[in-house]
């Protein structure tokens, strides 16, 4: 029997799972099941055999892990495993084992990864002590079967994960042998990104009338395809914020919606990007319509540049201003991808969709391309040299406009010496460079590695400079600063136009730069761009506001709440020798 995944996104609450599992999902920030999960979880729970065509990144692990954990017995459990998950590689064994242990933590699930290259003695001892679930590569599972250290007699469920990959690696015979030693009435679940005939053969031999779950291709109507340029960049997950900073600096979007998979990812990425000097706003599922409208108007007014959201939180957003959509990681299905990128390129306008992906998700990217019929080009990250050139070009354009408008003053008193000592062209060039530095600053301590060349086997444009750490002479100063949250410290303050305010909360209540900007913008009516540096410490924070508006900000914030509570707000006394005096960043040249 074939079924497409549920058309409407389901809800975890509708799946009949134990509270301990719901709790684990909430902790991980999963908001709703992926399409494969919505369909596979009830099927696997019902005990029938299931065949799912699903690649890495679709959420297939939880699709089999949750039902297996759901059926773990209460109290003392048998010594022998009730589930065996066969996977092609040691890395996947470790990953699946970790995911199952995480989902099953409150249930006290005993999960063991069994793979070649690790001491067999230790695995043997753990098996001897008793485990509930074994995640194994077929070769090492066979070793244990031969030694008698693994018993399959108590198995209720066998999972063949990434079956095509296991076949590719020559494990077909081992799998046949392992299956022949399992109880006849076991349940078998098979996941595979592709279904070559050999896998079909095995399904016919070993699975009983399985439910087949396929991700249906979404038909695009001729002529209706939005004008969206689709690009992808391959970077490690830990480099996402740095990579995104580089990409956005070159793209100069009007407004960007960044999609993350979980709420935790949303918070982390928002914080990282704010630390780099962006005005990023996290959009949470729980926000009411009024709050959403406020966020959108900030995006429209340009006081917020980036909106970071999960699919759930972004539902129903009025997004006419968007020029760019970013997938901070690949979505779990081609349908979600299509839905996300449909947020730009509306009404004949052009839009850009950017996807960041991990090298492991290359197949998933190709799968999305195949199913959606879109063409997604893998690009090399902009290099620091390219960004510098682009920024300089932009500043030069602005200077030209100013000159054309005849809007330039003569050399003011006191600056004549500069022009006496140096050639006027050199002075102008130095000024251009200083002005252009501002944008490069947001790259932070950027040593992001672009994996595109590696992935594509050198098919990248060779004319491009190898990306890497900016050189010393041009590396932004922020790279040497202790934290990212002290962005633009001393800039406007140095000109005498800004004052620092002390706010009596900090990391202790999970305060983020966006919270302060949001409170000041909403309560005191300032533009986000008027807010200067923000320095969040453990128990307090310092924020710069224009001196002429300080009293108004203090009054407004005292009358309202930040992060749900009233807090002390006052001018910072800046006492020498106070505990935080040493932690202050030194002033540095004005940016922009
Ligand atoms: P998988 O395809 O099983 O390798 O999962 C890919 C990634 O998606 C993993 O990092 C999971 O933690 C994550 N994931 C799985 N299910 C969900 C979900 N329902 N919501 C958000 N993230 C998920």
Can you describe what's shown?
The protein is an alpha/beta fold and 592 residues long. It has four domains: 2-214, Rossmann fold; 228-381, Rossmann fold (3-Layer(aba) Sandwich); 384-406 and 414-443, no CATH class; 484-571, RRM (RNA recognition motif) domain (Alpha-Beta Plaits, 2-Layer Sandwich), CATH 3.30.70. It is built from 22 helices and 19 strands. An eight-stranded parallel β-sheet has the order 1-8-2-7-6-3-5-4, with helices on both faces. Helix 5 (120-129) links the parallel strand 4 and strand 5. The longest helix has 21 residues, at 384-404. The radius of gyration is 28 Å and the shape is elongated. Residues 30, 33-34, 37, 56-62, 261-262 line the site of adenosine monophosphate.
Number of domains: 4
Secondary-structure class: alpha/beta
CATH topology of the largest domain: Rossmann fold
Q: Write out the strand line-up for the largest beta sheet, numbering strands in chain order.
A: 1-8-2-7-6-3-5-4
Q: Note poorly predicted spans.
A: 216-225, 458-495, 575-592
Number of helices: 22
Q: If you average the pLDDT, what whole number results?
A: 81
Proportion in β-strands: 5-15%
What is the strand tally?
19
Q: What characterizes the major β-sheet? A: 8 strands, parallel
What is the oligomeric state here?
Answer: single chain
Distance between the termini: 62 Å
Overall geometric form:
elongated
């Amino acid at each position: 029997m074939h079924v497409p995944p549920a058309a409407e996104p389901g809800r975890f609450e509708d799946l009949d799972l134990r509270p301990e599992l719901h709790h684990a999902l909430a902790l991980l920030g999963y908001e709703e099941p992926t399409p494969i999960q919505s369909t596979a979880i009830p099927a696997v729970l019902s005990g029938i055999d299931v065949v799912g065509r699903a690649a890495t990144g679709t959420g297939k692990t939880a699709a089999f892990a949750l039902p297996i954990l759901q059926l773990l017995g209460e109290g003392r459990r048998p010594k022998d495993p009730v589930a065996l998950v066969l996977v092609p590689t040691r890395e996947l064994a470790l990953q699946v084992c970790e995911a199952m242990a995480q989902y099953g933590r409150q249930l006290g699930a005993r999960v063991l990864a069994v793979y070649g290259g690790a001491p067999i003695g230790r695995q043997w001892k753990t098996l001897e002590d008793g485990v509930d679930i074994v995640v194994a590569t077929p070769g090492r599972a066979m070793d244990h079967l031969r030694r008698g250290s693994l018993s399959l007699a108590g198995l209720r469920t066998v999972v063949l994960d990434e079956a095509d990959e296991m076949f590719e690696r020559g494990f077909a015979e081992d799998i046949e042998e392992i299956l022949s030693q399992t109880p006849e009435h076991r349940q078998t679940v098979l996941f595979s990104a592709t279904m070559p005939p050999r896998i079909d053969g095995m399904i016919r031999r070993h699975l009983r009338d399985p439910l087949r779950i396929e991700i249906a291709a979404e038909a695009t109507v001729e002529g209706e395809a939005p004008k969206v340029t689709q690009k992808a960049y391959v970077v490690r997950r830990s480099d996402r914020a740095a990579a995104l900073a580089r990409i956005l600096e070159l793209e100069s979007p009007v407004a960007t919606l960044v999609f993350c998979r979980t709420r935790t990812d949303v918070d982390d990425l928002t914080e990282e990007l704010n630390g780099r000097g962006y005005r990023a706003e996290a959009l949470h599922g729980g926000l009411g319509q009024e709050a959403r409208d406020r966020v959108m108007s900030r995006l429209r007014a340009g006081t917020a540049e980036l909106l970071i959201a999960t699919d759930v939180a972004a539902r129903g957003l009025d997004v006419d201003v968007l020029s760019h959509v970013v997938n901070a990681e690949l979505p779990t299905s081609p349908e979600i991808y299509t839905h996300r990128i449909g947020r730009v390129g509306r009404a004949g306008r052009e839009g850009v969709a950017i996807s960041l992906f991990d090298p492991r998700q290359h197949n998933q990217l190709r799968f999305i391309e195949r199913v959606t019929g879109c063409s997604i080009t893998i690009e090399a990250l902009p290099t620091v040299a390219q960004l510098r050139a682009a920024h300089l070009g932009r500043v030069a354009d602005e200077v030209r406009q100013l000159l054309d408008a005849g809007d330039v003053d003569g050399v003011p008193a006191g600056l004549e010496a500069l022009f006496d000592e140096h050639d006027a062209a050199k002075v102008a060039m130095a000024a251009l460079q200083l002005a252009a530095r501002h944008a490069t600053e947001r790259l932070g301590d950027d040593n992001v590695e672009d994996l595109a060349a590696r992935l594509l086997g050198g098919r990248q444009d060779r004319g491009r400079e190898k990306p890497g750490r900016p050189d010393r002479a041009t590396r932004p100063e922020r790279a040497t600063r202790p934290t990212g949250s002290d962005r633009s410290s001393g800039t406007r303050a140095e000109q005498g136009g800004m004052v620092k305010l002390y706010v009596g909360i900090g990391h202790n209540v999970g305060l983020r730069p966006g919270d302060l900007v949001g409170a000041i913008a909403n309560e005191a009516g300032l533009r986000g761009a008027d807010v200067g540096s923000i320095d969040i410490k453990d128990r307090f924070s310092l924020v710069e506001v224009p001196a002429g508006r300080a009293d108004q900000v203090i009054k407004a914030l005292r009358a309202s709440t930040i992060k749900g509570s009233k807090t002390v707000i006052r001018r910072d006394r800046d006492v020498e020798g106070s505990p935080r005096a040493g932690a202050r960043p030194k002033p540095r040249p004005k940016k922009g």
